[in-house]
Amino acid sequence: MTLFLRNISDTDASWLHDLNEACLPAVNQLRPEDLWTLVRKTAVTRVAELDGVPVGVAMTLAPRVPHTSMNYLWFDQRSDDFLYLDRIMVDDRARGAGVGKALYQDIFQFAATIPGIRSVTCEVNLRPFNAGSLKFHAALGFVTVGEQETEGGKKAVSLMRRPV
């Protein structure tokens, strides 16, 4: 299998929404137009293809972008030297093929090219507990820098940072 990474294009809109829906509840549900509005806010949105078929995406936000995510705002209120990984999604059929790790490595390289950016940030669910994701992020060099409850206490997240 050949893995290829590229920037998102307008032709990806339908596929991106289908992937977002398939990744619920790990990501929040968005209408197609709201998901594409998010894409337009990103510093970069990268698509992973396996043998020419899109199977994964990583969406990032720079500091000071008008965005309402509690987790993004946690970082944005505390620093201006980060690239926030808003969502990373991988098609179930491509799990175990190294797509997620390749997308993260690509985002780390991209972040290193932005003047003033010193880290990549994200969050991982603590409630519901996601042990696999915590282990994956720790192996990539992420450390917890805070925790917060979301959705009125229904969820809790570990807020993580990794130097670039």
Entry keywords:
single chain, 164 residues, alpha+beta, Aminopeptidase, seven-stranded mixed β-sheet, 5 helices, 7 strands, 30% helix, globular
Account of the protein in words:
The protein is α+β, with helices and mostly antiparallel strands and 164 residues long. It has one domain: Aminopeptidase. Helix content is 30%, strand content 34%. The protein contains five helices and seven strands. It has helices at residues 13-22, 32-41, 70-76, 99-112, 131-139; strands spanning 3-7, 44-50, 53-61, 82-90, 119-127, 143-150, 155-163. A seven-stranded mixed β-sheet has the order 1-2-3-4-5-7-6, sandwiched between helices.
Brief sketch in words of this structure:
The chain has helices spanning 13-22, 32-41, 70-76, 99-112, 131-139; strands at residues 3-7, 44-50, 53-61, 82-90, 119-127, 143-150, 155-163. It has 164 residues and is of the alpha+beta class.
Q: What low-confidence regions span 5 or more consecutive residues with pLDDT below 50?
A: none
Q: Quickly count the domains.
A: 1
Mean pLDDT: 96
Briefly note the structural class of the backbone: alpha+beta
CATH superfamily: Gcn5-related N-acetyltransferase (GNAT)
Q: Do you know the CATH architecture?
A: 3-Layer(aba) Sandwich
- The helix/strand series, from N terminus to C terminus, equals EHHEEHEHEHEE
What topology does this entry show?
Blueprint: E1 3-7, H1 13-22, H2 32-41, E2 44-50, E3 53-61, H3 70-76, E4 82-90, H4 99-112, E5 119-127, H5 131-139, E6 143-150, E7 155-163
Parallel strand pairs: 4-5
Antiparallel strand pairs: 1-2, 2-3, 3-4, 5-7, 6-7
